[in-house]
Specification:
The protein starts with a helix and ends in a 6-residue tail after the last strand. Helices cover 46% and strands 8% of the residues. It is built from 6 helices and 2 strands. It folds into 2 domains: 3-68, no CATH class; 76-128, no CATH class. By secondary structure, the chain is mostly helical. The protein has a two-stranded parallel sheet with strand order 1-2.
């Protein structure tokens, strides 16, 4: 399922209201949870979670070290397409930017990936705009 499809399940105003209405007890339950679902994640984004920022930072650090160790990974960007229907203020793919638009073919993607691999990159960040039909 695409991120946009998941996001479409939630109305922004309802999400904001839910986050704002979070109680300290809901935050405590979220902090005690081993895995976070949508409700727990929303609770940890709430103003009620502010007194627990140090605890959240410590937990995030533990999970990061557990999953990645004490390594620094370099990611090479692989731009698949700059075609986008969104107008995010921070993004160079913004639909209102007057730039040439292009989507790589599968052969071009493979060729780019081989170049990156040949340069020693083993971690690739796939970058693309969001446009239905592309």
């Amino acid at each position: 399922m695409a991120f946009g499809e998941v996001l479409a399940r939630y109305q922004p105003d309802e999400v904001a209201a839910r986050i704002e209405a979070t109680s300290p007890r809901q935050v405590s339950r979220a902090l005690a949870a081993e895995r976070l679902g949508v409700e727990e994640f929303a609770a940890l984004l709430s103003p009620a979670a502010e007194p627990h920022l140090e605890e959240l930072a410590a937990r995030a650090h533990r999970l990061t070290v557990q999953r990645f160790g004490r390594n620094i990974f370099l990611y090479a960007p692989l731009y698949l397409s700059n075609v986008c229907s969104n107008s995010c203020a921070y993004c160079g793919f913004n639909v209102h930017n007057a730039i040439p638009r292009r989507t790589l073919t599968l052969d071009e993607i493979e060729a780019e990936a081989r170049v990156l691999h040949g340069l020693g990159f083993r971690h690739v960040l796939l970058l693309t705009g969001e446009a239905p039909g592309v």
